[in-house]
């Protein structure tokens, strides 16, 4: 069921998705990798202290997943508001 | 077969490949030249972006920096990857929808002002030219160390190769050679890492090896490394940071914003077919980049471990580094050390005359340690190790076959050449499209512009070569400047152009200039006005890192905040942008109607 072309609602939906992406982006890098790293280092993931792991490995994996998740969700929003590209 | 010949064969074969691609992919139109015809697939573009992005510094220096900085090195890992999240959801899809050739063109059209576009051209040129100096010197260094020719000869050969595919092929030639260069560099990086991880931990995957136990023990590698480095007076590996945590935070943020704002990265997203393709291409770019970036911390930590184990064997066995025969006899040093001593990157000086190599932190904060070192008759650290050795000598330290060493040479060259080509593309299109076509000769024909583009490219290569041959004394400080400028001027201007319909030209220009000037002021205060030695005025601003302990490299994020704030205030007190500009922003925000990229107005 496609809604009428509504640029305000489309942009609101986009911004809310971008906000979610950026919150996770900041939490894994600045949060887990820097601010809370010392505390997280009390826990271990194999031989990795967890804070150190987020800073040197984990945040990068989450970044990749985030971009592909964003792409998928944006595609859904585009189709819902009927603004997707014709060649899709 | 001898190492030198193997290296020549492998490097020669990769060069032939690049030239073959250049012949196959010549540019016939301005669209081919600027954006590879706008028809590159997202995965292919991701690979090319990864090669474009990963420079000589990523390939040769980063693992070494991580080895010495330990946890603090994370700022490069997160900073140089996190920017792709910003690119994917804030910039790339919208700029692709906008559908023009260059970044300054977006700024000029969006802010309906040739002055705004010219400011963007200036920022782009400073950022790209400073960045390219490092690539050209990287080419020279790789040649001289691996191929036994002078650094000058190396730069000339490098210029000739880039000339072949960049001048004739433009973005099209560059894109397809970058794909080949990515494959060469990633194989060259991962093969030695796998062998070293296997040797130390028995796990073939370096990302897992770094979190595993040392082979044959139940002590984890990182725990052992923490112990070894603290025994030698260094800061604990998994927690050491440069400066304070705020600096680490801001440094990482500056690199992320700077990454997203660097024009040679952004233009790569103009080459894909659609808005949706721009989004997935950002994801693929990061997949290919992450292959190297998640391997680098393993290479760094394992190389540091191998180095200490070689020089101070007691650290691994009894744990008493001060015992009489605890450190390596200079006589008994392995062959790779002899080879790297010849290059001057590894130096030993027997300060206490005992014929052994004491390698430790003689500036340790641990008083207890320094006292024990003195009692043991140590008279200061005796070994200096250039951090670049970590990657380049890695295969030798791990006793890998000659073809792996040759491969690392080819990989280092691929990394430097691919980044240089991407930067040259950004520089020459700013000159031929944003200056010649849009400002000086608006009625230039397409053929004329294509020719202008090729001439601008040729001249940029000569300039880059010249700067590579005569690197200004400030070469080391320039990366900070490139990221600082991209973060403080270009990124905020582009982002506000998309996310604020009401942002006007006065606000954008004032913001760009304020961000740029404040960042330049802070960098110049530390490193000299235009990097001229003796002109630094750091004491006038209250000593080094006086702004909350933030180093000049980490200042780009502060510049960006100033840019946003100034733009917002100026925008409030000046006139709203015209209605057609607001419609244009509205249009850029939705994917429908995306077309092939053109340079037309």
Class of secondary structure makeup of chain A: mainly alpha
Q: Which CATH-level-2 architecture of the domain at 3-301 and 398-469 in chain B?
A: Up-down Bundle
Low-confidence stretches of chain B: none
Please work out how many helical segments of chain A DSSP would assign. 3
- Give the count of helical stretches of chain B: 24
Percent of residues of chain B in beta strands?
Answer: under 5%
How far apart the termini of chain B lie comes to: 59 Å
Which CATH top level class of the domain at 3-301 and 398-469 in chain B fits?
A: Mainly Alpha
Q: How would you spell out the order of helices and strands of chain A? A: HHEEH
Question: Could you explain how this protein is built, in words?
Answer:
The complex is a heterodimer of chains A (88) and B (601). Chain A has helices at residues 7-35, 37-40, 50-80, and strands at 44-45, 48-49. In chain A, helix 1 packs antiparallel against helix 3. Chain A has one domain. With 88 residues, chain A is mainly α. Chain A is built from three helices and two strands. In chain A, strand 1 and strand 2 form a beta hairpin. Chain B is mostly helical and 601 residues long. In chain B, 67% of the residues lie in helices and 1% in strands. Chain B has a two-stranded antiparallel sheet. At the A-B interface, helix 1, strand 2 and helix 3 of A face helix 5, helix 10, helix 11 and helix 13 of B.
Helix and strand topology:
The complex is a heterodimer of chains A (about 90) and B (about 600).
Chain A: H1 7-35, H2 37-40, E1 44-45, E2 48-49, H3 50-80
Chain B: H1 3-24, H2 30-35, H3 42-53, H4 56-69, H5 74-98, H6 103-110, H7 114-146, H8 151-201, H9 206-209, H10 221-231, H11 245-261, H12 263-266, H13 275-293, H14 296-311, H15 335-342, E1 346-348, H16 367-375, E2 383-385, H17 389-392, H18 394-397, H19 402-440, H20 446-469, H21 478-499, H22 505-527, H23 556-573, H24 579-589
Antiparallel strand pairs in B: 1-2
Helix pairs in contact in B: 1-8, 1-19, 3-8, 3-13, 4-14, 4-19, 5-11, 5-13, 6-7, 7-8, 7-19, 7-20, 7-21, 7-22, 8-14, 8-19, 8-20, 10-14, 11-21, 11-23, 19-20, 21-22, 21-23, 22-23
């Amino acid at each position: 069921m496609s809604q009428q072309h509504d640029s305000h609602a489309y942009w609101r939906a986009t911004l809310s998705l971008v906000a979610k992406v950026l919150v996770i982006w900041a939490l894994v890098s600045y949060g887990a990798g820097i601010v809370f790293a010392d505390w997280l280092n009390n826990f271990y993931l194999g031989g990795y202290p967890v804070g150190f792991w987020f800073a040197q490995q984990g945040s990068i994996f989450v970044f990749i997943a985030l971009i592909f998740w964003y792409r998928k969700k944006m595609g859904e929003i585009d189709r819902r508001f009927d603004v997707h590209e014709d060649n899709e | 077969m001898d190492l030198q010949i193997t290296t020549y064969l492998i490097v020669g074969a990769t060069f032939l490949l690049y030239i073959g691609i250049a012949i196959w992919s010549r540019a016939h139109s301005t669209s081919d030249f600027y954006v590879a015809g706008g028809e590159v697939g997202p995965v292919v573009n991701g690979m090319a972006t990864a090669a474009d992005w990963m420079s000589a510094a990523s390939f040769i220096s980063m693992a070494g920096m991580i080895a010495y900085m330990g946890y603090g090195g994370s700022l490069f890992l997160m900073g140089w990857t996190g920017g792709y999240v910003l690119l994917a959801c804030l910039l790339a899809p919208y700029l692709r929808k906008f559908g023009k050739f260059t970044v300054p063109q977006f700024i000029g059209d969006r802010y309906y002002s040739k002055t705004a576009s010219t400011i963007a051209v200036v920022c782009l040129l400073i950022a790209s030219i400073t960045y390219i100096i490092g690539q050209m010197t990287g080419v020279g260094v790789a040649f001289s160390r691996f191929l036994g020719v002078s650094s000058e000869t190396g730069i000339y050969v490098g210029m000739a190769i880039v000339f072949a595919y960049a001048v004739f092929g433009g973005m099209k030639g560059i894109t397809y050679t970058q794909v080949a260069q990515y494959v060469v560099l990633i194989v060259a990086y991962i093969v030695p890492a796998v062998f070293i991880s296997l040797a130390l931990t028995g796990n073939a995957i370096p990302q897992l090896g770094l979190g595993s136990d040392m082979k044959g023990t139940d002590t984890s590698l990182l725990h052992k490394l923490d112990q070894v480095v603290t025994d030698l007076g260094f800061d604990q590996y998994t927690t050491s940071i440069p400066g304070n945590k705020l600096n680490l935070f801001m440094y990482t943020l500056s690199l992320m914003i700077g990454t997203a704002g660097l024009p040679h990265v952004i233009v790569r997203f103009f080459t894909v077919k659609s808005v949706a393709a721009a989004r997935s291409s950002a994801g693929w770019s990061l997949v290919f980049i992450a292959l190297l970036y998640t391997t680098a911390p393993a290479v760094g930590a394992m190389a540091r471990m191998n180095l200490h184990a070689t020089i101070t064997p007691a650290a691994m066995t009894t744990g008493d580094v001060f015992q009489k025969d605890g450190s390596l006899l200079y006589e008994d040093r392995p062959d790779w050390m002899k080879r790297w001593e010849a290059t001057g990157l590894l130096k030993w000086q027997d300060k206490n005359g005992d014929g052994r190599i004491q390698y430790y932190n003689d500036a340790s904060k641990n008083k207890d340690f320094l006292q024990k070192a003195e009692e043991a008759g140590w008279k200061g650290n005796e070994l200096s190790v250039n951090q670049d050795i970590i990657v380049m000598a890695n295969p030798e330290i791990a006793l890998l076959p000659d073809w792996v060493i040759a491969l690392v040479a080819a990989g280092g060259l691929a990394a430097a050449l691919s980044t240089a080509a991407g930067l040259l593309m950004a520089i020459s299109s700013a000159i031929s499209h944003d200056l010649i076509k849009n400002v000086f000769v608006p009625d230039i024909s397409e053929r004329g512009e294509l020719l202008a583009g090729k001439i601008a490219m040729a001249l940029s290569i000569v300039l880059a070569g010249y700067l590579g041959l005569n690197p200004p004394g400030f070469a080391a400080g320039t990366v900070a400047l490139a990221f600082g400028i991209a973060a403080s001027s270009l990124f905020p201007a582009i982002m506000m152009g998309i996310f604020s319909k009401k942002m006007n030209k006065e606000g954008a220009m004032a913001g760009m200039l304020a961000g740029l000037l404040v960042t330049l002021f802070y960098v110049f205060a530390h490193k000299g006005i235009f990097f001229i030695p003796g002109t630094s005025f750091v004491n006038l601003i209250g000593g080094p890192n006086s702004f909350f302990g933030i180093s000049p490299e980490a200042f780009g994020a502060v510049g960006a905040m100033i840019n946003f704030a100034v733009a917002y205030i100026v925008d409030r007190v000046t006139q709203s942008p015209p209605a057609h500009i607001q419609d244009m922003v509205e249009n850029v925000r939705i994917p429908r109607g995306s077309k092939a990229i053109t340079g037309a107005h």
